[in-house]
Design goal:
The complex is a heterodimer.
Chain A lengths: L19 H5 L5 H6 L2 H26 L6 H12 L10 H31 L15 H4 L1 H20 L18 H9 L2 H28 L8 H27 L5
Helix pairs in contact in A: 3-5, 3-9, 3-10, 7-9, 9-10
Chain B lengths: L3 E11 L8 E11 L4 H14 L22 E2 L2 E2 L21 E5 L8 E3 L2 E2 L2 H8 L21 H11 L6 H5 L6 H12 L8 H15 L8 H5 L7 H22 L2
Helix pairs in contact in B: 2-6, 3-5, 5-6, 5-8, 6-8
The chains are: A mainly alpha, B alpha+beta.
Chain lengths: 259, 258
């Protein structure tokens, strides 16, 4: 009666933990081999996620300079362009970091996409009655949607404050001859729809981080009874700090505290 | 003194074979003792259907005492029904109320094709076990009980994992149809114990990669743990992930010795 489940057309060799043929198998390069399985892809998700967490946190901390005034923020932006200058020419280190970030974003998206496809295939026929989820949080079940919102926001944010495509003020110099980042931020948040989009996207980011930061511990196999109870607290704390910091900027501009 | 529930409506998934289209069929249970188990309630329904010369509902069951892992059923959208840490066979009708509508559906996953009605084929789990869920040991007389000393916390942790009865509720409850809780329970059961060490890294690599051929991936929702009739913790999944990473390094190193 019960027949072995075989994927159509899939030839499967012996998979026993002691099978000789497995030992003789030609191995792909380490990272390619690891990335070939779902568990390995979750490692890629977690590691690229950690890199992006670092960026998100330091981006927020750096932007807090705007509360110290225009000169402080503009000097900070100039400092980033001159990272490791004069060892490297101006902006070279900045671009190295940017390429690193872009690579991490691509890994994160590729892993998320391929895992989503795998998961959809794993249940081709959905439950025909309503599911009653017990513990899956809104955050965990909306990761792909919050992720897409954040990605769309990042694209807008780059066009706005980095390339100036949608912000005519970006690139203007201040009295000291530095790029007036402060003025560009004030310009962008004086547009109410932009500020609202910014706030919504940051709340989506917070929801994404709330699940992501907890989840990465599991994916990386970091499980220790001594610190397990801190994992969710750390995720909540990280998400709150980043969201409160980031959302304060448009609120401060709209309230006239900055500007 | 037992009470009776009356006027239950069952919406049961009926499907005549693996390749046939299925549908929900409604049945009335006029009266059932609240001491009846959920499966006994289905037995009563089947007796009635047979009496009416209709096809009885096919469902998986065996020991009916919660230890064999044969029973299944998605009951009102929850694997093994509303009671925590309870397999369907140990779920009793006192958990329901008179007049309730109860929706019963089979496990749904690519790797668990429906055989008939509520019965699914879970042999994909066997493929995972075959690939490494055992220890290779010389058979013969049973060794002395305390020949290999094992610290109590380690024995307890291994026992917690060994409780897995392989019912598939974790896969059924997982929004991704992943079998990580099952596979991780089977891996950690052996990988925690001294007897499992010799094949530890071969085991985890083989079992994870076999799992990958049939099931979805883990997104840490925790639904598996909530559905598990043996309350196996998602902590075992972290242990599996850690051992898988270690295996990728160690197994390559072992191979390069040849």
């Amino acid at each position: 009666m019960a027949q072995a489940v075989m994927k159509p057309g899939a030839a499967r060799g012996p998979v026993s933990g002691t099978a000789k043929s497995r030992e003789g198998r030609r191995r792909k390069p380490f990272l390619v081999d690891l990335y070939g399985t779902a568990v390995g892809k979750k490692y890629a998700m977690a590691i690229s996620g950690i890199a992006l967490l670092g960026f998100v946190l330091f981006h927020m901390i750096g932007n807090l300079k705007m509360y110290l005034g225009a000169s402080d923020l503009n000097h900070y932006a100039h400092f980033l362009e001159k990272l490791l200058y004069p060892i490297l020419p101006e902006k070279v280190m900045l671009w190295i970091l940017r390429f690193g970030l872009i690579a991490m974003v691509l890994v994160h998206i590729h892993a998320a996409y391929t895992l989503t496809v795998l998961n959809r295939k794993a249940r081709p026929v959905k439950y025909q009655s309503a599911r009653d989820y017990q513990v899956a949080s809104f955050a965990s079940r909306s990761m792909r949607y919050t992720g897409v919102i954040v990605l769309a926001f990042v694209v807008w944010h780059l066009l706005d404050l980095t390339f100036g495509t949608v912000n005519s003020y970006t690139g203007t110099k201040d009295a000291e001859g530095l790029k007036d980042v402060y003025g560009a931020v004030v310009y962008t948040f004086d547009r109410v729809p932009v500020a609202i989009f910014y706030i919504i996207a940051n709340i989506a980011l917070g929801v994404h981080l709330f699940h992501g930061v907890w989840s990465l511990f599991q994916s990386l196999g970091w499980n220790n009874p001594r610190f397990n109870k801190w994992r969710q607290a750390m995720a909540t704390g990280f998400a709150v700090v980043v969201v409160v910091g980031n959302v304060s900027f448009p609120v401060a501009v709209m309230a006239g505290i900055v500007g | 003194m037992s009470h009776h529930l009356s006027n239950l409506t069952l919406k049961v998934w009926r499907q005549s074979g693996p390749d046939n289209a299925g549908h929900f069929e409604s049945y009335k249970i006029d009266s059932i003792s609240d001491e009846a188990s959920f499966l006994e309630m289905l037995d009563v329904l089947n007796e009635k259907l047979i009496g009416e010369n209709k096809e009885p509902v096919t469902f998986d069951h065996d020991c009916r005492e919660g230890i064999c892992g044969t029973c299944s059923l998605m009951i009102n959208g929850q694997a093994h029904g509303p009671e925590r840490a309870t397999a369907t066979c140990q779920l009793h009708m006192r958990k329901f109320k008179s007049g309730d509508e109860i929706v019963i559906e089979p496990w749904r996953a690519q790797a668990f094709p429906i055989v008939k009605d509520l019965m699914v084929d879970r042999s994909a789990f066997d493929r995972i076990i075959e690939s490494g869920g055992f220890i290779t040991a010389p058979t013969g007389g049973a060794p002395d009980a305390n020949l290999i000393p094992i610290p109590k916390p380690v024995a307890d942790a291994a026992m917690d994992s060994a409780q897995c009865i392989g019912c598939g509720a974790c896969v059924a409850a997982c929004p991704n149809g992943a079998a990580n809780l099952f596979t991780a329970a089977k891996i950690s059961h052996l990988n925690l114990l001294p007897q499992g060490q010799a094949e530890r890294y071969k085991r985890v690599e083989a079992m994870v990669e076999t799992m990958d051929e049939y099931f979805g991936s883990c997104t840490n929702h925790g639904e598996c743990e909530a559905a598990c009739p043996k309350e196996i913790s998602v902590d075992v999944i972290a242990l599996m992930n850690k051992d898988y990473r270690a295996a990728k390094f160690k197994n390559r190193k072992e191979l390069s010795r040849n």
